[in-house]
Design a protein that fits this description.
By secondary structure, the chain is of the alpha+beta class. It is built from three helices and eleven strands, in the order αααβββββββββββ. Keywords: 4Fe-4S, Iron, Iron-sulfur, Metal-binding.
Length: 224
């Protein structure tokens, strides 16, 4: 999915009918819980000259990636699987209703750094090779709760620069179970965050489970 998302304009304008370019990319791949009758003309920017080359790249890549996605996201028995590792997960984690991404709690290693709600951070989770961008929505006793955001459309301000905070510990995820089984409190689980750019299965312990809302702590990219 990431291969398609990075070729989209990245404006997250919603003109395609989806909340952002990530969801549009997922729909283009024919994900099971989204409409599959989706085409590139839904994006008004892909027909503009500056994006035509990337549109061509998307058209070339789609058939192969669609095939891979269909084979590895969900197997014949309905198991949810990571794309990069092929591991089975207990469930997929989606954002809470009305929110743009799953909530992620961070512990910043730089103890001298100061933050305010609304700051956007540029960081790398310990153990993850991918740089993340997160907008702070809550600060509680040094724990920062962020929504994942993309770097290319922040505030539409060319002069905008996120705060560089280096490596961070991811303490928890919070969101909704979109596919798979509802876990029990205290259970160690494998889960697939829908916003994960690598589409890699994570592990952790359920500390809250109410309806489809779950909170997972002790998050780890190692899955035993």
């Amino acid at each position: 999915m990431k291969e398609i998302e990075v070729l989209l304009p990245g404006y997250n304008c919603g003109e395609c009918g989806f909340r952002g370019c990530r969801e549009f990319a997922r729909a283009l791949l024919g994900a099971r819980d989204l409409e599959t009758d989706v085409h590139l003309d839904l994006c008004p920017f892909l027909s503009r000259e500056r994006h035509l080359e990337k549109r061509t790249q998307i058209e070339e890549k789609l058939p192969e990636i669609r095939s891979l996605w269909a084979e590895r996201e969900v197997d014949e028995e309905g198991e949810i699987r990571g794309v990069i590792d092929g591991l089975a997960a207990d469930f997929a984690l989606a954002p809470l209703p009305g929110e743009p991404a799953c909530r992620e709690d961070l512990l910043v290693i730089d103890r001298d750094a100061e933050f305010e709600v609304g700051d956007v951070l540029r960081y790398r989770p310990l153990g993850c090779p991918i740089t993340h961008f997160g907008e702070i929505i809550k600060i509680d006793h040094g724990l920062l709760t962020v929504h994942m955001v993309g770097p290319r459309h922040l505030l539409g301000d060319e002069d905008f620069a996120p705060k560089e905070v280096g490596v961070c510990m991811v303490a928890a995820f919070e969101g909704m179970v979109s596919r798979g089984r509802i876990p029990e409190v205290g259970e160690t689980v494998r889960f697939l965050p829908e916003h994960c750019m690598m589409q890699k299965v994570h592990s952790g312990v359920i500390v809250h489970s109410e309806g489809k809302t779950v909170r997972i702590e002790g998050v780890d990219l190692k899955v035993w």
